[in-house]
Amino acid sequence: MDGRVAHQRKGNIVLLSKGSVLGIDVGCSPTSKTSAVCRLEWDETTISWTIQRFRAAEPERTETISRVAGSASLSAAAFDGPLRRGLDIIGRYRAAERLLTRRFQPLIGKPGQSSAPVGRLLNAHANACAQAVLKVCDIGPTTHDVGIHDRAIVEAFPSAFLGMLIENPAALNARRGDRSDTFFAHVVETGGIERLVEHLLPGRRIVLPLTSVTNHDDRAALVCALTALCVAVGRYAAVGDAEDGWIVLPPPALHALWARPVLDQNAGEERVGSVFNGEVALAA
What we know:
Blueprint: E1 7-10, E2 13-16, E3 19-25, E4 35-42, E5 46-54, H1 60-69, E6 73-79, H2 95-99, H3 105-108, H4 117-136, E7 138-139, E8 153-155, H5 158-163, H6 179-189, H7 192-200, E9 205-206, H8 216-233, E10 237-241, E11 245-249, H9 259-267, E12 275-277, H10 278-283
Parallel strand pairs: 3-6, 5-9, 6-7, 6-8
Antiparallel strand pairs: 1-2, 3-4, 4-5, 10-11, 10-12
Helix pairs in contact: 1-4
């Protein structure tokens, strides 16, 4: 941290008294507002957010991001789209995608492949959103161990993030087209978002009703902002590698009981270090 946000440290875990993070649901449509940006902010007692949608075209993309971020100093920003170091086009099937596909797919779905045409397109738009944030936002430096840039930008994947908080995701009978919405509604109904927030920022009250977030893209942007918050306070897991990027997941302490064995088994089939457990590393 660079001192712009009041904070304390407990070991390597950052205890932020107030601050802001950004989450962006990356869409590809230049004609429909299928992208969304969320600024999540907190103080000593409360948490709230602001969300707006935009088209995947300039100048609307950059102007909307700038308007929502405002003059806030952001601790981190998370994007629902593939990112790698240098913000280059990836163009291949990544470790992060493999790790969240094998054995996970029947339970919580899977990420798209960065090697597929739609994956390449999403990668390009994620890069454009990240470049816009770097251009117009006041975003803090990277302090987490799986950084891809000297500023704190990270990759999110909302359906996996939410799915790993659910004890029995298969029972929800979610389908590809509605999976993240089904997961979001379930996690809200069962108090999972409140438990996550309490774990990351103890003692705060969410002042806006989570049930009021009903749009698919708004929900994804909010989950991306929560992903950024995990990184900002140093409580997260991540899968991937230094070459092709990392997908950030919830803190290991909140993973459902089924999730960790699956993640460990998948990690055993990848190179050493493809799963990063930030919370355990910080607590050691």
